[in-house]
Amino acid sequence: MEKMMMSRFKPHILMLLVQTGYTFLYFITEASFHHGLNTYVYITYRHFVATLVFLPFAYFLERKKRPKMTWLLFLEISVLAVLGVSLTLNLYFLSMNYTSPTFLASMVNTIASLTFVISVVLGLEKVDVWSLRGKAKIVGTLVSLGGVMTMTLFKGPKIQNISSALVQIHGNPHIHENWIKGSILTVASCLTLSVWYVMQAYTLRRYPAQLSLLTWMNFLGTLQSAVFAVIMEHKPIMWKIGFDVDFWCIMYSGVVASGLMIFVQMIVTEMKGPVFVTMFNPVTTIMVALLAYFVVGEKLYTGSIIGAVVVIVGLYLLLWGKDKDLEYAFKCHQDSNSVVDGESKNKSVVNDQRQQV
């Protein structure tokens, strides 16, 4: 019984750990950017570290499992690297210069709804609109999007901080100066990341070697980001990293965020699909909002709280609908097996009777 429970909730536990990792990523990257770390340089170094760390594991552990690389597959992985690494992250971390960690964590919740819609269009996700589970998935998607709109458009009264910030993040005085620009950049990054999740599910079918795919994406993402960084940043001094918060930010981001967490997401994507993976983003929203309020002393508004609650209700309606889909599919599978077993028994009885005759 315990094994069955662990097997059933293993994807849930893995995704909760991933979201915890993303929560710390928000704050360590914000601290580094305030310290002066260049966004383009950070993304390049981050994926270079991930490539170096995971290359040996991918090479030795997946030698027999890794499919042959073709030009078509290489092109497909290159597009994945653009969507999941160079383009998405450059848009995403640029938006951090104009908004806040809480806002970013909130907007990321749109990824689940966007991924769901794209998956339905492409046939990865099935929706029975006449069933209760199908209606729950549709309503959940609409409710979660409504919650995100609430967080974006309605601030409401500010909640008074209970105490002074435990951690002070000092930095660029021009930070958080253009909320509209930051919102556009964030939405664009969410859209490209949603496409990445769906495309990754397709690629894993043709290239079922998670570590190798992870390493290829990081390697190609490093090259793409390096070219973009050189174009955007001409000062060589910006590439110099000291043994300080910038160094630890790059190491954590490379090994944990671009390595372990993406690897775990690939495993869960194969088990549950891309929509399931994105459903756990509200966990990060809650954790970031709490830490930003209690630890960093960031302003918190009632609109953000109301919107976050609405988003979570919507996403877990969607999760409930998906769980019921799995139960329904399992029941249908059992029923079909029972029919096949019954037909086999009838055939064996007929054969026995024939032999007796």
TrEMBL record:
<feature type="transmembrane region" description="Helical">
    <location>
        <begin position="301"/>
        <end position="321"/>
    </location>
</feature>
<feature type="transmembrane region" description="Helical">
    <location>
        <begin position="101"/>
        <end position="124"/>
    </location>
</feature>
<keyword id="KW-1133">Transmembrane helix</keyword>
<comment type="similarity">
    <text>Belongs to the drug/metabolite transporter (DMT) superfamily. Plant drug/metabolite exporter (P-DME) (TC 2.A.7.4) family.</text>
</comment>
<feature type="transmembrane region" description="Helical">
    <location>
        <begin position="211"/>
        <end position="230"/>
    </location>
</feature>
<protein>
    <recommendedName>
        <fullName>WAT1-related protein</fullName>
    </recommendedName>
</protein>
<feature type="transmembrane region" description="Helical">
    <location>
        <begin position="73"/>
        <end position="95"/>
    </location>
</feature>
<keyword id="KW-0812">Transmembrane</keyword>
<dbReference type="InterPro" id="IPR037185">
    <property type="entry name" value="EmrE-like"/>
</dbReference>
<keyword id="KW-0472">Membrane</keyword>
<dbReference type="GO" id="GO:0005886">
    <property type="term" value="C:plasma membrane"/>
</dbReference>
<feature type="transmembrane region" description="Helical">
    <location>
        <begin position="179"/>
        <end position="199"/>
    </location>
</feature>
<feature type="transmembrane region" description="Helical">
    <location>
        <begin position="250"/>
        <end position="268"/>
    </location>
</feature>
<feature type="transmembrane region" description="Helical">
    <location>
        <begin position="275"/>
        <end position="295"/>
    </location>
</feature>
<feature type="transmembrane region" description="Helical">
    <location>
        <begin position="12"/>
        <end position="28"/>
    </location>
</feature>
<dbReference type="Pfam" id="PF00892">
    <property type="entry name" value="EamA"/>
</dbReference>
<feature type="domain" description="EamA">
    <location>
        <begin position="181"/>
        <end position="319"/>
    </location>
</feature>
<feature type="transmembrane region" description="Helical">
    <location>
        <begin position="40"/>
        <end position="61"/>
    </location>
</feature>
<feature type="domain" description="EamA">
    <location>
        <begin position="12"/>
        <end position="150"/>
    </location>
</feature>
<dbReference type="InterPro" id="IPR000620">
    <property type="entry name" value="EamA_dom"/>
</dbReference>
<dbReference type="GO" id="GO:0022857">
    <property type="term" value="F:transmembrane transporter activity"/>
</dbReference>
<dbReference type="InterPro" id="IPR030184">
    <property type="entry name" value="WAT1-related"/>
</dbReference>
<feature type="transmembrane region" description="Helical">
    <location>
        <begin position="136"/>
        <end position="154"/>
    </location>
</feature>
